[in-house]
């Protein structure tokens, strides 16, 4: 974990309320899919707390990193105003990343809404390593589909609740149509709303495959001190910190 200032390279709108922020990364510490960071949006006390974001990309050759975020409140509204050349204080990389898929498997990546960020990072890494995978992205309507080259390059299956683009229905609905193609040696990786994560967990149980979920929790400190981001677990003591033991968990370890 490091704390340092980064420079904004680009901060562009890529969908309805979705933004892509690319920053410099002038550190030797590598970033892996599943890691996250926290940003201090302003130098004053509004907002007081840092904001956590999953990495959506990392390029060690160009010394850059990126996030995809959604404008939801005051903090992210201020973040949308950041311009090329502005500096932001960053802490990261934080948390535990996704594991590698088993040899010979075909990973299934499932992203819902703003969960597209870490899954895009994972897909880009699989593509770089020439590993086969499928990528399923779900959102409410077509205006939430990211207008981003890196997203189009992974050839995603698009699911929209209203049928305005791609498959009509949720990612869970789509997975039911492809369930027979998933082998017990495959791994399902997912990030998105809780019902979607639960559906992926149940799919893995039915197919005998493994499932890793990146949970989305409200965080205060981001480093494991405040205990404000806990999730319920099967094993004692019955909870785990999303920022420290997570945000990536084996779905069998969580209490659904």
How is the topology of this model organized?
Blueprint: E1 2-15, E2 18-24, E3 36-40, E4 51-59, E5 64-70, H1 74-79, E6 87-94, E7 108-112, H2 116-128, E8 134-139, H3 149-152, E9 157-160, E10 167-168, H4 171-178, E11 187-191, H5 194-207, E12 210-214, E13 230-232, E14 239-241, E15 248-250
Parallel strand pairs: 7-8, 7-11, 8-9, 9-10, 11-12
Antiparallel strand pairs: 1-2, 1-6, 2-5, 3-4, 3-6, 4-5, 12-15, 13-14
What's a quick, concise take on this entry?
The chain has five helices and 15 strands. The protein has three domains: 2-94, Translation factors (Elongation Factor Tu (Ef-tu), domain 3); 98-216, Rossmann fold (3-Layer(aba) Sandwich), CATH 3.40.50.80; 217-256, Ribbon (Dihydroorotate dehydrogenase B (pyrk subunit), domain 3). The protein is α/β, with parallel strands linked by helices.
- Look at the structure and give the CATH class of the largest domain: Alpha Beta
- Classification by helices and strands: alpha/beta
* Poorly predicted tracts of residues: none
**How much strand?**
25-35%
Oligomeric state: single chain
Q: What's the story with the biggest beta sheet?
A: 7 strands, mixed
Arithmetic mean of pLDDT: 95
Helix count from the secondary structure assignment = 5
Measured as a percent range, the helix fraction is 10-25%
Any idea what the radius of gyration is?
18 Å
Please, how many domains? 3
**Widest sheet: strand order?**
10-9-8-7-11-12-15
Termini Cα gap: 30 Å
Return the string of H and E elements: EEEEEHEEHEHEEHEHEEEE
How many E-type strands? Answer: 15
Coarse shape: globular
CATH second-level architecture of the largest domain? 3-Layer(aba) Sandwich
Determine the CATH superfamily of the largest domain: Nucleotide-binding domain of ferredoxin-NADP reductase (FNR) module
